[in-house]
Amino acid sequence: MPRLSLLRSSAAVLCLVLPIAGCGDSNQPNPAAAAPAPAVTVVKVTAAEIKPATTFTGRIEAKNKVDLRVRVDGFLEKRLFDEGMDVKEGELLFVIEKGLYQAAVDQAKAALETAQSTLKLADLDVDRQTQLLQRNVVAQATLDQVTAKQGEARGNMLAQKAALEKAELQLSYTDIKSPISGRIGRASVSVGNFVSPSNSALATIVSQDPIYASFPVTQREMLAVRKQQAAGKGGEYVIYVQLADGSRYPSPGKIDFLDNTVNQGTDTVQVRALFANPDRVLVDGQLVTVVAEEGKGESALLAPQQALQVDQTGPYVLVVDKDNKIQIRRVETDVARGANIVVRKGLAENELIVTEGIQRVRPGQVVAPTEAKPGA
Q1: What pLDDT is recorded for position 122?
Q2: Is the dihedral of CA 123, 124, 127, 128 positive or negative?
Q3: Which of 69, 122, 184, 346, CA to CA, is 20 to 30 A from 97?
Q4: Residues 6+ apart with CB under 8 A from 88
């Protein structure tokens, strides 16, 4: 009996405490209900006119590229340029010591003068012996002998003249000038070193403007273009270059060369386009994406590339609906257009997609969206 009374007393105490506790909880705020909606940045899906395009991997090539090489032996006396500067055609760049070659020119000039004097004397002798023969004073054999000496003197004079031209040519090789206008690279030899024709190039000059973009095109792509043009469906193509950061080089190019042979290893034909390059943005040897774009456009939806997410199912974006709730939307994409990407399926114009704060939200969650300004 005492034990039963104790149980009844405990039950009565619980009945009194629980209602009091319940009343206290009803006055406390709910942390989950008070938490603010996470902030996200959204961008509106826009419609724009795009043009069908095909991309290729290409290389930038200088229109002209020259290795400066030595033609005569000697010590390098001067370097008259700063590495990486622009040089003009005919500009003096290197100077090799001239003393030995200048002496050879002086010696050749002296030998030529001697030969010219000998020829002049031989000419006079022939004239004299001719007059004497007309008077029957000397025999024909005498005239023949002086005529032969005259020919020998003339030949010697011509040889000395050629020797002088050679000496002057070698002297001119001591001045190494730029054969083209362009930008010069790093000098491979310092002043004071001995150089000779067996050395590697002293420096390399590449032209900057205009410049080429070379890219391979498969036979299948070539045939597809020709069939479209034959059917009247394909228009003219404009060639663009897409840089490493995804931006498009502003000036379009024009195809100026199509190779006449097919690479048997890759079954491709090399195509080359010419671009204006006044700001030196395109550099020889640079890897770029070449975009061949048709002249006719079509309407398509554009979305920022940073909004695109990928999982095992495929690409998707997070859409903010009219109730500010997050929805997952599966999409089908096409080619990139700068910072945007073409969306073929899954989105509608003017829908809001999340670009910043993606990691803080989940499907069905209410958010506080802030629309980014165009171009932000």
Answers
A1: 85
A2: negative
A3: 184
A4: 178, 181
**Distance between CA atoms of residues 191 and 188, nearest Å:** 10
Q: Which pairs from 79-83 meet CB under 8 Å and 24+ separation?
A: 79/187, 79/190, 79/191, 81/184, 83/184, 83/185, 83/186, 83/187, 83/203
Nearest to 73 by CA among 93, 94, 96: 96
Identify the structural domains of the chain with CATH numbers, from first to last. Answer: 39-50+299-371 (2.40.420.20), 53-63+209-296 (2.40.30.170), 66-97+174-206 (2.40.50.100), 99-173 (1.10.287)
**pLDDT (mean) for 239-265:** 86
Residue with tokens 């008077």: 135
Task: Write a three-state SS string for the chain.
Answer: CHHHHHHHHHHHHHHHHHHHHHHHHHCCCCHHHHCCCCEEEEEECEEEEECCEEEEEEEEEECCEEEECCCCCEEEEEECCCCCCEECCCCEEEEECCHHHHHHHHHHHHHHHHHHHHHHHHHHHHHHHHHHHHCCCCCHHHHHHHHHHHHHHHHHHHHHHHHHHHHHHHHHCCEEECCCCEEECCCCCCCCCEECCCCCCCEEEECCCCEEEEEEEEHHHHHHHHHHHHCCCCCCEEEEEECCCCCECCCCEEEEEECCCCECCCCEEEEEEEECCCCCCCCCCCEEEEEEEECCCEEEEEEEHHHCEECCCCEEEEEECCCCEEEEEECEEEEEECCEEEEEECCCCCCEEEEECHHHCCCCCECEEEECCCCC
Q: Is pLDDT larger for residue 221 or for residue 204? A: 204
Joined tokens for residue 289: 């994406």
Q: Distance (Å, rounded) from C-alpha 242 to C-alpha 89?
A: 31
Question: Is the bond preceding 210 in cis, omega lying within 30 degrees of 0?
Answer: yes
- Cα separation, 79 vs 334, in Å, equals 53
Is 0.85 topped by the overall pTM?
no
Question: What is the distance between the alpha carbons of residues 49 and 70, in angstroms, rounded to a whole number?
Answer: 56
On the 0-12 / 13-18 / 19+ scale of CB atoms within 10 A, 40 is buried
- Give the residue-averaged pLDDT of 288-314: 82
